[in-house]
Design goal:
- The chain is 0% helix and 45% strand.
- The model has no long low-confidence stretch (mean pLDDT 85).
- It is flat, with a radius of gyration of 15 Å.
- Strands 6-7-8-9 form a four-stranded antiparallel beta sheet, with no helix packed on it.
- The chain is mainly beta and 84 residues long.
- A hairpin with a 2-residue loop joins β3 and β4.
């Protein structure tokens, strides 16, 4: 999940720190708590926290793909995805 900074309109991404997960703008310093993460074991680094992204396919006969972006390394794991 990406978000835009309300001050300078730059895309801000979640960042995990010792005291929680935050959305922080590297441009102006805006910062707010982020609670849009879930428990998921990363396939690359085994980190336990990730952002959930739901993606519906274009064709109506295809299901929804659930993606998990690791808060540690940025790896995206996919569930319900059939590669072509």
């Amino acid at each position: 999940m990406d978000s835009f900074c309300p001050k300078c309109r730059v895309i801000i991404m979640p960042k995990e720190e010792a005291d929680g997960v935050f959305l922080e703008c590297k441009n102006c310093g805006f910062r707010k708590p982020f609670d849009g993460w879930t428990e998921h074991d990363c396939s690359v680094c085994s980190h336990k926290k990730a952002i959930v992204i739901l993606h519906e396919m274009v064709r109506g006969d295809e299901g929804t793909t659930t993606m998990y972006r690791c808060l540690n390394c940025g790896t995206v794991d996919k569930e319900g995805w059939i590669g072509r």
